[in-house]
Amino acid sequence: EVQLVESGGGLVQAGGSLTLSCTASGFPFDDYYFGWFRQAPGKEREGIACISNSDGSTYYARSEKHRLTIRSDKSKSTVSLRLDNLKPEDTAVYYCAANKRFYFLTQAMGKLGTPGLDYWGQGTQVTVSS
Is residue 3 within a helix (H) or strand (E), and if so which, with residue range? Predict the structure, then answer.
């Protein structure tokens, strides 16, 4: 079955860093593009980072670019997201998504709402304490 499994979430102090991972299975990793989204309690889902497996291009939510790093490891079918200088406002469920068209991932960056992408993970909770 198709699976996107997130890991690496947890509790971290403000100012710290955290790396999330998304491992894909059940579909050809190299034929899809990947993104990360977050959803805070009571708010809409927001696109924050995406990456192209074809040329390595990356896009980030404009306001968060300096604190985010997305990377793809094709040998492990895994996409990671490093979050630096974490703030309490970063507390949210973080979701991994995969899509056959990169354009729709790039268009979702910095925007609120859940786009109709091909595959979604179940999310991993990140809680930032002050």
Answer: strand 3-7
